[in-house]
Task: structure prediction
Amino acid sequence: MRKGYSEFITMAANSMGKASKKSLQSVNSDIDWNGVLKPLFKKYRGKKHPLEFNDPYQLLVMIVLSARASDIMVNNLAPALFKQYPSFKHLATATPEELYPLLRVPGFRNKAAWIVEIAKTLAPLKAIPETITELTLLKGFGRKSANVYMSQIGLPAEGVIVDLHTLRVAPRLGIAIGEDPKKIEQQLMVKVNKKDWHILGMSLTYLGRETCRPTNPHCEECLVNSVCQYYSEQK
Ligand code: SF4
Result:
C-alpha cells in the first residue's frame, strides 16, 4: 500500500450489494469454465463501458453516482458536474449542499456527501488508490465498485465484478450457487483463471443485460447454453 493512505486505512470497508431473489442451488464442478466461457470473453473483450468517462477521476465519481441508478442517468448529469468540478482538487472545495443541485436526482443527497468526502480524502494525496483494499475504504465504494474501476483503468484484477446481473446469471449458468455477492465472487475466482477475472465480470454483466434477462432469457441465442443448468432444466 502506498504512503499516504495510512490516514484512512482504518475506515470501515463498504458492504457489498444486495443478493438476488432467486438462484439455483447446485453447481457443476466438472465443467472447464475457462474453456466454456471463451466465446463470451471474445464477444465482450474491448466492449466500451456504458459510463462515459474521460479519466480515472470521472470514472470513480461516476461509479459512486451509479449505485442503484442507471448509467444513462449518470451520463446525463455528469458533464455539468465535471465542468464545474474538473478534478478531486476542485471537488474538495465544494459542500454537499452546493453539489446536490447539479445532481438533480432525488435520493442523490447521500452520494453528493460521499463524493465530497472522497475528494477531501484523495485531493491531498494527489493519487487515486490502485488496490482493492484501498479503494474499498472510500465512501460508497464496495468490492463491485472497486472491481469495475480496476477493470476499466487496466489495473491488475484482484476480484470479479458481481452486480445484480451476475447474481442472476451465475447461478442459472451453474458456475456458482447462492445469493451472497461475496460468496458468488469467491466461487468465480476459483473457477476462472485470474488473468480473465476482469473480462469474466464484464461478460456475465453484459450477458445478463443483453441475453439472460430476468424474465424470458434468450437461451436459444446464448453462447453458453450448451452447459447452462437453467437451460437444460427447461428443456
Ligand atoms: S442459456 Fe439462458 S439461462 Fe443460461 S445463461 Fe444463457 S440466457 Fe441465461
Notes: The first helix runs from residue 33 to 36. Residues 30-234 form a domain with the Endonuclease III; domain 1 fold (CATH 1.10.340.30).
